[in-house]
Amino acid sequence: MKNNAVPITDHDAARSARNRANASHSTGPKTEAGKHRSSLNAMRHGLTGQTIVLPAEDLAAYNHFTQQTFDDLKPVGFLEKQFAQIIADTSWRLHRIPALENNLIALGFHEHSNRINTEHPEAHAALVIIEAMREQTRALNSISVHGERLSRQLERTLKQLQNLQSQRRATEATQLSEAASLLQMHQKQGVPYQPSEDGFVFSTAEIETFIRRRDRLKAATAHA
């Protein structure tokens, strides 16, 4: 039978030994401040009901970031909100990639710092960093590929949301124009008008605001 096991190199063995040594030196946070820093928090996703678990500080930042995204995109209806949430989540993950890369290199720096000896501090830092990057090439490449995929997903989802919102606004503009014509006809006849009877979701006040704006624009065009 063919053996598909991947051979363990001296480099892999050395790294495993370092990881075991580092793990033996750390048994988790012991102070209250340390425990607080390492604590996790969870929230239930408003759209899907899924539970999201993040470090407490990250969760607060994530909630703020998501709210800013919704405030900027101004989604209306469930489908637009779904797209907005995907955009928020994808952007959050995309912005996290530089931190993942830096933290990965910092971890390698910590692991290799004592293995490289040179009297020049800048040279020591440069050599340790390049050694860390050489060891983490596969992980860094994976992060880069992941970032490219997220960028494509973000661009695609944003375009989908923009198309959906354009269609909605065009439909709303047509319906407002129709509702305005019907309201003005009823006003001339002295008959009360209920927009909902014609399937409109606009209030009478919204329709009247549309009429005033439309009339001002006509006057401004004529004046110009």
Which residue ranges are poorly predicted, with pLDDT under 50 across at least 5 consecutive positions?
A: 22-28
Count of the separate structural domains? 1
Return the average pLDDT rounded to an integer.
Answer: 79
What percentage of residues falls in helices of 4 or more residues? Answer: over 70%
The counted number of beta strands is 2
Strand content: under 5%
Distance between the termini: 87 Å
Tell me the major beta sheet.
2 strands, antiparallel
> What general form does the structure show?
elongated
Pattern of helices and strands: HHEEHHHHH
Secondary-structure content class: mainly alpha
How many helices? The count is 7
Question: What is the CA-based Rg, rounded?
Answer: 29 Å
Sheet with most strands: strand arrangement: 1-2
Description:
Strand 1 (40-44) and strand 2 (51-55) form a beta hairpin. This protein starts with 9 loop residues before the first helix and ends with a helix. It has one domain (42-223). It has helices at residues 10-24, 32-37, 56-73, 77-112, 121-135, 137-189, 204-223; strands at 40-44, 51-55. With 224 residues, the chain is mostly helical. Helix 4 runs antiparallel to helix 6 (137-189) and helix 6 (137-189) packs across helix 7. The model is unreliable at 22-28 (pLDDT under 50). 73% of the residues lie in helices and 4% in strands.
Task: Please describe the structure with a list of short key phrases separated by commas or semicolons.
73% helix, 7 helices, elongated, 224 residues, mainly alpha
Give a quick summary of the entry.
The protein has 224 residues and is mainly α. It is built from 7 helices and 2 strands; from the N terminus they run ααββααααα.
